[in-house]
Design brief:
single chain, 3 helices, alpha+beta
Length: 154
């Protein structure tokens, strides 16, 4: 077991299976020392646990937990192309999308779920730049979608 996966276990988490693509793309692509993930939805066992807009059908706290799940799914996608999460030198960038009710402005707080998970699991390697964007709708009516860019040890 890798050190990263041992840390996940310490947190009571297990790395899920990679979420299969919903269309014509790959869950992650490696280019040199970088891995780019596709947008990861908060799928659990092939299902979205909650759907709808944050600030309407979904609370900000629920969405924050969903963003955490997205980040866990993103780590699974990274492992699918590297074979070992211990190869992560650092998370460079996190981009998050929040399906938002018209008056919801708490996107950064929602995306903290993903950022905090990466920090808990990777420590200083999980510190990253980030964008948190409110959108009208996401695939499958998901409340949150997260993609990450990681740099690997050369």
């Amino acid at each position: 077991m890798s050190a990263v996966e041992a840390r996940l276990a310490d947190l009571g988490l297990t790395l899920p299976e990679v979420v299969p693509p919903l269309a014509a793309y790959q869950p992650a692509v490696r280019s040199g020392i970088y891995v780019y993930t596709a947008g990861q939805l908060p799928m659990v066992d092939g299902q979205l646990p909650v759907t709808g807009k944050v600030g309407a059908e979904v609370t900000a706290e629920e969405a924050k937990d969903l963003a955490r799940t997205c980040a866990l799914n993103a780590l699974a996608a990274v492992k699918s192309v590297t074979g070992d999460l211990d190869l992560i030198a650092r998370v460079v960038k996190v981009t998050g999308f929040v399906a938002s009710a018209a008056d919801f402005t708490g996107q950064p707080g929602v995306l903290n779920g993903a950022s905090e998970l990466l920090g808990e699991v990777l420590g200083d390697k999980g510190v990253h730049a980030r964008s948190a964007v409110g959108v009208a709708v996401l695939p499958l009516d998901a409340p949150v979608e997260v993609e990450i860019l990681v740099e690997l040890v050369p």
